[in-house]
């Protein structure tokens, strides 16, 4: 005897026709919903066969590589040489001003400065009386990029930085799976040209390098490159900007396919600042202002 509620009413001859039709429609709707749910679960499993879970096991700090720390001075251009805020706000530039702007943008086209950001904010004022250091905390196997955790240390302030490592490991049982199925690459599965170790950041950086070289026939000064590769000058800045904001996404999807590494190490950074005017303190007596 079936226990599905309503099914027995379909064969009951003493039931009115409209009631039997109602139960038929209800049962068909339930079966249709059941098949849709099962198909969705199967599709979800096929698209995401790997389950991510948090391991609460405590790992000694000695087992985690010490992060690389990169200091970068944002004051790379003296205001007496070029007031970039003034030049970017001008509608028409002279030939000399255009050359100065091209040279300045080439110098500042490192990992933390993007041309469109300067054009949108109009506040790229590198005044010499304000010292700002950017501290980049990153995987020692990677070069610093704008995608890494960045903290800033300003003049006349005390900055405390808290670094929390995040380590993602993948079970060895998944080595027989295809990278697309497990969603990551083991280090031996994907070799990079400019980096010894595979990480997703290194792959994205190399993808940007290859796209820039293909579109502009040169590389930016901050790019890792071979000695024989030409370095872009100021004339190639527009080409590089076009690569970053137009061609790079298509290039990544068609050429790069930068999946995460199966062993991925990243660092979360929190910084705290307190004002401190150091010019009023010296080494011998911290309560006496300097003359």
From TrEMBL:
Taxonomy, superkingdom: Eukaryota
Predominant subcellular localization, coarse grouping: membrane
Gene Ontology MF terms: ligand-gated sodium channel activity
Xref: Pfam families: ASC (PF00858)
Subcellular location: Membrane
Membrane topology: Multi-pass membrane protein
GO cellular component, one term: plasma membrane
Segments traversing the membrane: 21-42
Keywords linked to the UniProt accession: Ion channel, Ion transport, Membrane, Sodium, Sodium channel, Sodium transport, Transmembrane, Transmembrane helix, Transport
InterPro entries: ENaC (IPR001873)
Family designation: Belongs to the amiloride-sensitive sodium channel (TC 1.A.6) family.
Protein name: Uncharacterized protein
Record organism: Laodelphax striatellus
Origin organism lineage: Eukaryota, Metazoa, Ecdysozoa, Arthropoda, Hexapoda
